[in-house]
Amino acid sequence: MTEQDLLAQSPDDYMNDVQQGFFRELLLSQRTALQARIDAEFMVLREQEPNSDPADVGSAEEQRQWQLRLLEREKKLLDKIDGALEHLARGEFGWCRETGEPIGLKRLLLRPTTTLCIEAKEREELRERHQRAI
pTM for the complete prediction? Predict the structure, then answer.
């Protein structure tokens, strides 16, 4: 099934077995690609050789810190993908955790790990902005 086929389905078919299968495959594919990137980054970190020149040491440490931050972000995304796969297994995928309303196929195609519909996400962001302003 393609994205166009998915979007062409009736709203009554929301999160039927075919759509769940589509998103399961999408998430598994993203998970495999992400895990390969994480493994490659770890390999690069392990293979870095120490330098004796202080300038090189500083540059290497800055690069290492950048790579570690990237790995941390990718690990968080991996956790979100695993969470989305768990929601699929429980039949909760595609439904807003706050309102219980459908998240929507277009939003799920753009961000398959989302757990909030647009309106709930906007409310969450407003609360976050308000808390930062205090």
Answer: 0.83
